[in-house]
Design a protein that fits this description.
This protein has one domain. A two-stranded antiparallel sheet has the order 1-2. It is mainly alpha-helical and 80 residues long. It has 3 helices and 2 strands. Helices cover 45% and strands 5% of the residues.
């Protein structure tokens, strides 16, 4: 599964890369849990600190837009 990062709109570059990295990681590892130190390398050679992205996104989830929350939910990521 390749995640379409254009779907989230303007101004979300880092978030889009994080979601793309999470989708790639999920496809390879069959998991949505990555160690905080994990770095995911996207096909365009971009490096995404996936563990940091997940930690920061979780702590800031109350401030995320519905589109961003939906992008995470589409991958199966849900936080209480």
């Amino acid at each position: 599964m390749v995640y379409c990062i254009e779907k989230l709109g303007r101004g979300s570059g880092a978030f889009e890369r994080g979601v793309a990295a999470l989708a790639q990681y999920k496809n390879r590892a069959s998991s949505l849990t990555a160690p905080r130190s994990h770095v995911e390398h996207l096909e365009d050679r971009t490096e995404v600190k996936l563990g940091v992205f997940l930690s920061n996104t979780k702590s800031r989830r109350a401030k995320l837009t519905e589109d961003k929350l939906q992008a995470l939910a589409d991958l199966g990521l849900h936080w209480p």
